[in-house]
Structure formats: C-alpha cells, structure tokens
Write a structure and sequence with these properties.
The protein is mainly beta. It has one helix at residues 38-41; strands at residues 9-12, 16-23, 27-31, 46-50, 54-58. Helices cover 6% and strands 44% of the residues. Pfam families: DUF2187 (PF09953).
Length: 62
C-alpha cells in the first residue's frame, strides 16, 4: 500500500476528503476544509487518519 505524502488528496470514512498536511509513522493529519461542503458538515477542520484507512485520490504536483 502506498502511503500518502504532504499535499496529496485522500478519501476516508464514507467519502470525506482532505489534503494531507503532515505524515507520521502510522497516520496522517488531514485538512478537511478542502471539501466544498465543509461548512455544512459542522466538523473539525483537521483530523488524524491511520494509513490503513484512506485511499489516495490525487497526488501532489510537487
């Protein structure tokens, strides 16, 4: 399984998407404000996701 890198867009937990901000050994920190409907969801702006629980949607250009 390929691990996400900073800047990647990932999807997890029933369709939530975000931009990877930091990569740790077992998880990533994701910025959820990337989603168009972020304000409607009333959730925190960042979350931690284990490497086993996401798929990479788009890799960063850098």
């Amino acid at each position: 399984m390929k691990r996400a890198e900073v800047g990647n867009i990932i999807e997890f937990r029933e369709g939530l998407q975000g931009i990877v901000e930091k990569v740790y050994e077992n998880s990533v920190i994701v910025d959820l404000t990337y989603m168009e409907n972020f304000q409607d969801l009333q959730i925190e702006s960042r979350t931690v996701v284990n490497h086993k629980n996401y798929k990479i949607i788009r890799e960063s250009a850098g």
